[in-house]
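Give me structure tokens for this 211-residue protein.
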Amino acid sequence: MAETVESIRRQSVEDWELIIVDDGNDPAEDTTGLYLDWLVEEDKRVSVVTHKKNRGTVAARNTGNEAATSDLILVIDHDDLVHMHRLRETLKHFKRNPGTDIFHTGWVECNVTGDPITEAFAPIRLTKKKFDANQFLFCHSTAAYPKRMVTQHPYREIEGRTDDHVALDDWLNAKLKFRSLNEVMCGVRRLPMGQMQAMRAANGLPPSWRE
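Here you go.
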């Protein structure tokens, strides 16, 4: 997580807030709390919202979105890496296209040390037909949306599906407007296991994991 946070703190635009949701970590087993205590003292742009007990990814995402004071929210998962100009390019896009509901960009997949292991992935025009046929790739850690949108269409939990997969389904059913930028704005860490590897296999793509 520390590498993720530092990539955010190196943004070329300095006016931002970072909301970290601590989803009920046990201080006896996890030193995350000590790091977060240091971080909020070190950088006043960072705030932490803590769940008293673990409530899962969906609740954590909704908690973070509700706590945001900005009209614009950028998503980042705890182990991914942000390009230094991601916020700048996102702000530029929404200024030019204020009617956008979900903005997303290209990305590259990385190993655990943050080294790229794939060629860059370009965002595609996402449609309900492609989604239902499982013929799409979408990087949630490149997504940005207005707070009004995610307040009206919050994340939901459905057993056996990832939070972002359910959200995309909901957003497409609501006919929200997706726009994208064909520039790499995120490094996404992939591990041997997980839903993304299963989705890549279903799309005829090789595993993105490399030693």
